[in-house]
Amino acid sequence: MAAAPQRRRRSARTRHSARRPRTRHPARRPRPRTVRRRTHRSATGRLVAAAIILVTVVAVFQEYPVTSSVLATLAVAAAVLLLVIRTGRLHLPGLRTAAQADFTHSIAAYQHMTGTQFEHAIADLARRDPAVRAATVSGGANDRALDVLLHLIDGRRIAIQCKRYAPSNRVGAPVIYAVNGTYRAYHRCDQAVIVTTSTFTPDAQRANAELDHPLRLVDGRALGRWIAGGRPPWRP
How far is CA 229 from CA 128, 129, 159, 225, in A? Predict the structure, then answer.
């Protein structure tokens, strides 16, 4: 007679446990063997595609040897030309960007630049000269009086110091002494040029004239002539 209530309690527990929601287990990660199988299939697919392309190229070359040789030569030449242009060894006017065209438009454009923009504009202007093999901007806080370094085809190295000054702020003699003291001993250059959008003080001109190897001084007017297509300052 006492077993009946116990059965009722068990049946109530059974109904209560049946009402509990089932917990969802997170999706199982793929097994390492499955991952390896997928990677192997992907690599095999790429290998098959490469083999098909290679067989196709060989078949086309055997069928049309002259045309294929010409196309291959043109492709190699285009790759070499692109590499030379990207490294700065060749500068084509037709590939100039709009910003670079504005930099070399007039002296007024140079006067509204920042110091860094002026340095890059002078380097871009120097690349117009076919004798320039490379022009590297190296200005900064500790540039030691060197903003642009030129490598000429004949092997010479030219150090350029850029001074984007307002017309009322002229370049003084201390700049002459600083450039003269570093361009040969520290930068191992053969010649030094100072380019400014302003002018040079009389003291700066006298200090430069007294040097054993005077520097090339390019003021705003000379820079304007250079922009207009004049002779670069390192030319004789």
Answer: 9, 10, 21, 7
Beta strands 191-196 and 157-163: pairing type? parallel
CA separation for the pair 214, 206 (Å, rounded): 10
Structure tokens at 218: 């390019």
| CB-based contact 131:152 (threshold 8 Å) | yes
DSSP letter for 90, please. Answer: -
CB 151 within 8 A of CB 126: no
Tokens at 171, concatenated: 């370049």
- Tell me the C-alpha distance between 43 and 172, whole Å: 67
**Beta-carbon contacts of residue 183 (< 8 Å; ≥ 6 apart):** 145, 146, 159, 189, 191, 192, 215
Name the token pair of 28.
């199982």
β-partners of residue 192 are: 159
The pair of structure tokens assigned to 22 is: 């089932």
pLDDT in tens, 184-236: 999 999 999 999 999 999 999 999 999 999 999 999 999 999 999 999 999 88
Residues 8-21 pLDDT 10s:
555 545 454 445 55
SS3 state of residue 186: coil
24 SS3 class:
coil
Question: Strands, DSSP E only, in the chain?
Answer: 132-137, 148-152, 157-163, 191-196, 216-218
Determine the Cα–Cα distance for residues 155 and 165; give it in Å rounded to an integer.
Answer: 31
